[in-house]
Write a structure and sequence with these properties.
By secondary structure, the chain is of the alpha/beta class. It is about 45% helix and about 20% strand.
């Protein structure tokens, strides 16, 4: 079931709030990969888990990859950033990247080869839990299975593009302004993934564990600190704009004053001074 007004782009605060209160496809993927329940809880209550340069790059490439997928399979795919909840238990949530007539789409940009999934793709087959495990991306399998039964659709098209790092670029630990400077697109692939009833049972079991978990201590980095950091960065950006504007006004004033000064004179004003120097 689609949750009204839950768009990640248009209503990000509600999107994050609902994700913290439930267990998402991303959470299931993390648990499939071996993350502990306490660590998952801490991550879910830290704003830093919602963005990174890698996530930025993935969002940047997402629509382009979905367009290539549409061209390949000749089927309409609607890009999506809404939350969906499982009809039988709204505690389970997902935000698939795209939705088709009888399938969901999950897009990944990754930095290493997926040999087993490439073999499945070349053979025209459908990837299974074992195939994802063979490529050491079992977390992705848990994620797409959760999307399949929350939307619900019987199939997922799992598309990926190899991410190539630009030479000489250091990936920062925080979101960046120009993500074009970080990566370049590589070759891309996709495989079909069916519903796996075992995954649904596992997701439910993990969901019950998450509900029962009571943290013995609060997350290491409280939510309000991440909010405060965001406010500080916003103020710093505003100061930089003001400084740039101030420098422009000073240069403009200097040029006007110079036009009316005599050689050798000095003009003092609150923002500094202008000296008319004659070079011989």
């Amino acid at each position: 079931m689609r949750i009204p007004n839950s768009s990640r782009e248009k209503n990000p605060e509600l999107w994050r709030k609902l994700r913290r209160e439930g267990i998402t496809a991303t959470d299931i993927g993390a648990l499939y990969s071996g993350k502990s329940i306490p660590q998952l809880y801490a991550d879910k209550h830290s704003d830093s888990s919602f963005d990174s340069p890698y996530m930025q790059w993935g969002r940047y490439r997402e629509k382009k990859i979905i367009q290539r997928l549409m061209d390949e399979i000749k089927t309409v795919i609607d890009s999506n950033d809404d939350l969906f909840s499982y009809d039988d238990d709204p505690f389970f949530l997902s935000t698939p990247d795209g939705i088709g007539s009888d399938f969901v789409v999950e897009v990944k940009t990754i930095g290493r080869k997926l040999d087993r999934l490439e073999e499945i793709e070349a053979a025209g087959g459908r990837a299974t839990k074992a195939d994802f495990a063979a490529d050491n991306i079992l977390g992705y399998f848990g994620q797409v299975q959760t999307q399949i039964f929350t939307v619900p659709k019987p199939l997922c098209l799992f598309a990926w593009e190899y991410r190539e790092k630009r030479p000489g670029v250091t990936i920062p630990n925080h979101p960046v302004e120009n993500i074009d400077d970080l990566f370049t697109p590589g070759e891309w692939h996709f495989v079909r993934v069916d519903t796996d009833d075992d995954a649904i049972r596992e997701c439910k079991r993990l969901g019950d564990e998450y509900r029962k978990y009571v943290p013995s201590e609060p997350p290491k980095i409280p939510h309000y600190l991440w909010k405060l950091q965001g406010e500080i960065e916003s103020i710093e950006r505003s100061i930089a704009v003001l400084q740039s504007d101030l420098e422009l006004k000073k240069n403009t004033l200097n040029s006007i004053v110079m036009m009316s000064m005599e050689p050798g004179s000095v003009f003092e004003y609150p923002l500094g001074s202008v000296r008319y120097t004659v070079y011989t």
